[in-house]
Amino acid sequence: MSLQKTFKGVNLGSWLLMEGYILGGANIAESKFKSKFEKRYGKKELTRFESLFRDNFITKQDFQRIALLGANVIRVPFNYRLLEKSPYVYSRKGFGYLDKVFSWAKHYGLGVILDLHAAPGAQNCDWHADSDGRALLWEKQARQNRTCALWQKIADRFKDQPALVGYDVLNEPVLGSRSTQTLKKFYQKVIKSIRTVDKKSIIFLEGDIWAQRIDFLTSLIQENIALSIHTYQPLNYTFNFTPFYQFPGKIDGIIWNKTRIHKYLEPYSKFSRKNKVRIFVGEFGINWRGGFWGEVNWLEAILKAFADFGFSYTYWTYKAVANQVFPDGLYQQVANCKYINRQGPTHGWDTYLEHWKNDKKSIVNFWKTKNFVPNQKLINTLRRFLKK
User: Fold this and answer.
1) Which residue, 293, 382, 320, is CA-closest to 24?
2) What are 251-257's contacts with CB under 8 Å, separation 24+?
3) What pTM was computed for the model?
4) What is the pLDDT of residue 4?
5) Is there a contact between 66 and 108 (Cβ–Cβ < 8 Å)?
6) DSSP character for 16?
7) Which residues are registered as beta bridge partners of 280?
8) Coil, strand or helix: which one is 362?
9) What average pLDDT is seen over the chain?
C-alpha cells in the first residue's frame, strides 16, 4: 500500500502481548505473569490459557466493529515470544495468529501494521516491552541479530498479503545514555533484513524516548520508509496521573488547548515537509473519566491537528478494563466483577491465578467484547475523523 495514503485506525493492544493495566491489573511484564501462572498450574495449562485468551479477547467480529468505525488500518502489537520458540526457531502456532489477522483484515477491508512491541531482551525498561526493568536488547549484538532474523521471517511470510501495510519494527525504543547511533545502526540492519525479501512494504521507524525524538533518523529516510511518533501530551492529563486536570485548562502550569496541541505537533509536520517523509502517530489516547474533564475536547483537538498535518494514526486502544489511570479502550469492561476486583488487594489479571481452576469458562466469557461497554462518546468522535 502506498505511503501517499493516509492510514487511520486503532491498536489491538493486549491481544498478542498482554498488558497488566489493560486487563485491570498491575503493570508487570507478560512473561513474569505467565511464569507465576505456570508455577501454579503447569506448562500445559499455561499453553491452554494462552490459546483461550488469544481465541477470545479479539475475534473476527472485532475486526468488523473496527471497520464499521470507518478505520482503514489496524496496528497489531505482538511479543516476539509469540513467534519465536528459541533463537532462530519459530512457532507455527504463533504465526497462525498473524495468518488470522491478515485473513480477517482482508475480509473487512482493513490494512495491517505489524508492531514488534517486545523484542528479545526488551528495547526499553517498561512492562509493555516484556522487560524485567532493563533494556537488554542494546547490550548484546546477538539479540539484535535475532530481531533482524525475526523480521526477515515475518516479511518473507506476509509480504504478498493484500492487507499488509507494513512493519513497525520496534515499539518505543529507549536508549538511555547510549548514543543514537546504536538505534540507527540497528535500524539499518533491520531495513536490510526486510528488504532482502520485501522491497515494497512500508517500514515504520520509531524514534528514541518512547517514539518522541526522530531528528537523528534523517539519514535513514528513503522510499517506503515512514517515521512513527507516539503522543500522549500532556501526559499527566491524558493518563490521569494528576487528578482533576481539565482540557482546555492549566496543566502542570501551562495552558493546554487546541492551539497548544497544534503547536506541540507542528515541529513534526515541519520535519515531515523538510525531509519529505510521512509521519505515522502509532499511539495516542486518553483515560476516560466520564467525559467530565474535557476528554472529548482533547480527542477532537488532537485529531484536528492530525488532519491539518496529514498524519496517519492509530488510537490506543481498542478495548480495556476501565481504569483510573492510563489510556483505556473504546470498548471498556466497566463492571467490578471478581476478575477485576478494583478494591484489591489482588486485582485484574492476577485474580486469574486464584480463580482459573474453577472459573475458566467464566473468565473466558469475561474476555469477550460482547461484555465490554462501548464508550460511545469516544467512538463517535473518532468515527467522525476516521470517515473524513
Assistant:
1) 320
2) 257/301
3) 0.98
4) 80
5) yes
6) B
7) 228, 312
8) helix
9) 97
For the range 304-309, what are the long-range contacts, defined as Cβ-Cβ under 8 Å and sequence gap of 24 or more? 304/258, 304/262, 304/385, 305/258, 305/261, 305/262, 305/265, 306/265, 306/281, 306/385, 307/385, 307/388, 308/262, 308/269, 309/265, 309/266, 309/268, 309/269, 309/272, 309/279
Query: Is 76 within 8 Å of 101 (Cβ atoms)?
Result: yes
For residue 153, the surrounding DSSP H or E stretch is: helix 141-158
The answer on pLDDT for 258 being more than 80 is yes
Q: How far apart are CA 348 and CA 23, in angstroms?
A: 6
CA gyration radius, the chain: 20
* 3-state secondary structure at position 278: coil
Stretch among 2-6, 278-282, 356-360 having the lowest mean pLDDT: 2-6
Reduced to 3 states, what is the DSSP secondary structure of residue 78?
strand
> In terms of Cα–Cα distance, which of 264, 250, 326, 332 is closest to 301?
264
Q: How many CA atoms lie within 13 A of 266 on its CB side?
A: 7
Helices 350-367 and 30-41, axial angle in degrees (round to 10): 100
Q: Which three cell numbers stand for residue 347?
A: 486485582
Three-class SS state of 119: coil
The predicted structure's pLDDT at residue 388: 84
